[in-house]
Amino acid sequence: MLTGGAEVVMFLQVIQGRVPDRTAMRAQHEKWAAQIGADAAGWLGSTAGITEDDRFICLSRFSSVEALARLAARSDQREWWGHTERLFLGPVVRSEFLDVAVMLEDGTDSAGFVQIIQGRAADAGRLHTLEKELLRYLPDGRPDIVGGLAATGPDGRFVRAFFFSSEELARAGEHGEQLPELEEILFELRSLTGEPTYHDLRHPWFASPRQPGRDREDSRSAAATRPTADKAGTRPWSAADQRTTTPR
Fold first, then answer.
1. How many CA atoms are closer than 13 Å to the CA of 148, on its beta-carbon side?
2. Helix (H) or strand (E) holding 121
3. Do residues 44 and 56 make contact, with C-beta atoms less than 8 angstroms apart?
4. Tens of pLDDT, residues 216-232
5. What sign results for the dihedral spanned by CA atoms 99, 102, 108, 113?
6. pLDDT tens-digit profile of 132-177?
7. 3-state per-residue secondary structure call for 48-73
8. What is the rounded distance in angstroms from the CA atom of residue 124 to the CA atom of residue 152?
C-alpha cells in the first residue's frame, strides 16, 4: 500500500456477481456495516455498488489475511452471508490479493463516481511495477481523481479502482491532455492487459470503521440531469481514442 511513499501490508477481497434486486443488496450492505463491520477487527473499509447491468462488486480492505479469517469465523457474519448469498442470480466470484497499492486513501470516501477495472496480464511482475508508477503520477496527472487502488496477483490477475469526484469531471478528464509520463504508462498497461472489464459505479457505497454504511446516491439527487452520453463501462481516465465498452 502506498500512502505518502510508505508501504504497508494490506489484504484485498473482491466479491462480485449479478444482483437484480439492488434495493435488497443495499440494505444488506448497510446492515453489515452497522452490525458487523463496526467491531470487525482488521477491517479497513469497503467500496461497493451495482452497475447499470446489475453486476454487484465489492472491494473490502483488511489489515491481513488473518483479519478476514477471524471475520469469516464469526457466527453473525455467517448468518449475514447466508441471507446475502440468496440475492445473487448465478455464481458468486471471489478474488483475493495480498499486494495492494493505494493512492490518497483518505479521499476515496468523498468520491461521487468509481470505476473498477479487472483483467489478467501475462507478466505479473511488470504489471505490478506499472501499477505503482501509475498511482504515483495520477494525483498530478488527473486532478479529477481523488483516490486509486491497484492490486496484482501472482498469476497476473489484477483489479484497479479509480475514485473520481464526479462522473462529469471524469468524462471531461478523459479528453484532457495527459502527462507524457502517464500516457507512456497507460500505453504499456494496455499492451500488457489487452482489453479488461470495466465496472462503472454511478452510486458507490462506502463503509469504513470511522464512517460505516455511507453511500452517495441520496446526496446526488440531481443525477437525473447528469449527461449520460457515455455508457457504463467506458474508460474516463484513458485517451479518448481508446474508449471501449465493457465486454459482455
1. 22
2. none
3. no
4. 444 343 333 333 333 33
5. negative
6. 888 777 767 777 888 888 888 888 899 999 999 899 988 887 777 7
7. EEECCCCEEEEEEEECCHHHHHHHHC
8. 7
